[in-house]
Amino acid sequence: MTAMVTHRGACHCGRVRFEVDAPAQIDALECNCSICRMTGFLHLIVPAARFRFLQGAEFLTEYTFNTGVAKHRFCRVCGIKPFYVPRSNPDGIDVNVRCLDPATIESVKVGLFDDANREVATAAIAYLSEDNSVKR
């Protein structure tokens, strides 16, 4: 397993802050679904135990659609979605790599999550929200 570092992140205005334990060399996903494509979200899915919400709960608002499983959380002041509960891994947290402070990031490798083939894509990333996941 790759060594973890603590990344800190925030929304654009800084009211919503969090930290996440993840590798310094991030394997991110770019999803081609309508909401991710339109917002430019770059996915880092982690087990919920590796995510810590630090401040700003009063500034978050939630948006759901379609199945209602994904819980899209936005800062109501600046409109940025720094993290959410993903439909593909509802037991984990999906952090927007673009909202992380760059100081702890060594590199970002981006793969594709193909929403047009959702079942296969979801099965391929199911391990990401497991507490004891081993990098494949």
Describe the model.
It is a single chain. The chain has helices at residues 34-39, 118-124; strands at residues 4-10, 17-23, 25-31, 42-47, 51-55, 60-63, 71-75, 83-85, 92-96, 107-113. The chain has 136 residues and is mainly β. Strands 6-7-8-9-4-3-10 form a 7-stranded mixed beta sheet. Strand 8 (83-85) and strand 9 form a beta hairpin. The longest helix is centred in the C-terminal third of the chain and has 7 residues, at 118-124. The protein is globular, with a radius of gyration of 14 Å.
User: Which band does the percent of strand residues land in?
Assistant: 35-45%
Binned, the helix content reads: under 10%
- Mean of residue pLDDT values: 89
Please tell me what the overall shape is. Answer: globular
**pLDDT under 50 segments (min length 5)?**
none
Structural class: mainly beta
- SSE topology string: EEEHEEEEEEEH
Name of the level-1 CATH class:
Mainly Beta
Through-space gap between termini = 9 Å
The name of the CATH architecture is: Beta Complex
Instruction: Give the biggest beta sheet.
Output: 7 strands, mixed
Briefly summarize what is shown.
This protein is mainly beta and 136 residues long.
